[in-house]
Amino acid sequence: MSAPICITLGGYQGPASVHTRGLAFLRDALLRRVGGKIEVVLKPNLGAEGHKTSDLPELTESGVIDGCYLSSSYLAERVPALALFDMPFAAPDRDRAFEMLDGDLGKRLAQEIEAQTGLVLLGIWDNGLRHIATSDRVLRHPDDCKGLVLRTLPNADHQRVFTALGFVPRVVDAKDLYDAVANRAVDAQENPLTNTLNFDLHEALPVITLTAHLIGIALVLFNRETFLGWPEDIRDAVFQAVAEASEMQRDIAREDDANSTRLLKEAGAKLNVLTDAQIEDWRAAAAPEVARCRARLDDDLLALFEENPAMTAMQNTHAAQRGAMIDGGHK
After folding, report:
1. For residue 172, which phi and psi values (nearest 5 degrees)?
2. Residue 120 φ/ψ, nearest 5 degrees
3. Fewest C-beta in 10 Å: which of 156, 273, 288, 297?
4. Does 209 score more than 60 pLDDT?
5. Model pLDDT, residue 288
């Protein structure tokens, strides 16, 4: 009998993370399908081993690990199509975004990733609606952002947009984020509520303005050569397990929004909802940079992403989602 295939999966967050829980579910789903033929090793927080979050694509492509999840923003410089999800106030509503990602848009992104990297995209997870936290300032208007040093992901589109909004962007890796916030190296940070809670960022930056400026997606990526070299039954099991884990992860991500809202408020954080008119001010300030980003993307790709260029449906849905975090179902 041949030795079992070892599959190593990596991430960059702690045990309470919806992504770490997704990795554990993926492991269990794989073992249920082909348990005797594989071993699964989880490295849920490679930051604890000294790696930066931005190292994960290279670690996966080089074969140090076989698969990982990763915020799409970390890969957008290499795969420009991923910039679709780096345009603030421009995405469809959350439900429609994942409906499209499970269809033609997801297939197109998978093709782009495979063509431009040594990776294969097998699933897309919910990386949350991103909001901005400060120590004591509610950001009702872009004028309120002027001069604030904002931690950003290593993504040029983010940095240009946040500069247009008045921030001074500063790239900080996820493994260094808590220290940067605690030591006041930054004045503000933007993240989903679950990350703000689980990284304890609310301790120093407890005023959270619910901008919902980006819908984050996390890519489930595998080393393409390694994946294609596995026997067909193992490849099929990985496909099926990722699909099962993706459905579960998205469900718990939605549930975690409610739990994070409650726990943040209990910890003394202040969550502030913007009016539709205020969101329009933010959208207008970001619009020139969003337009520049759109101009770099193929028309057929944008057509898969934008059902309604005016995005009025997105505006209504995001307003409802922001309001629900305060009033609906979180008591």
Report:
1. -135, 125
2. -125, 135
3. 288
4. yes
5. 96
pLDDT (0 to 100) of residue 225: 98
Mean pLDDT along residues 294-323: 65
Measured CA to CA, the distance from residue 242 to residue 219 in angstroms comes to 11
What is the model's pTM?
0.88
34 is written with which tokens? 């082909």
Smallest CA-to-CA distance from 263 within 217, 195, 311, 177 is with 195
Over the chain, what is the mean pLDDT? 91
For 71, how many CA atoms within 13 A lie in the half-sphere containing its CB?
27
Q: Which residues of 92-109 are buried (b: 16+ CB within 10 A; e: fewer)?
A: bbbebbbebbeeebbebb
Compute the distance between CA of residue 21 and CA of residue 132 in angstroms, rounded to an integer.
25
Cα torsion angle, 281, 264, 251, 119, sign:
positive
Angstrom CA distances, 4 to 20, 35, 44, 107, 322, stand at 24, 9, 21, 31, 47
Handedness of CA 26, 155, 143, 283 (dihedral sign): negative
The closest of 16, 11, 8 to 252, measured between CA atoms, is 16
Tell me the C-alpha to C-alpha distance, in Å, between residue 73 and each of 85, 174, 232, 251, 295.
Answer: 8, 13, 31, 22, 18
CB-based burial label for 330 (10 Å; 0-12, 13-18, 19+)? middle
Q: Which residues contact 316 (CB under 8 A, 6 or more apart)?
A: none
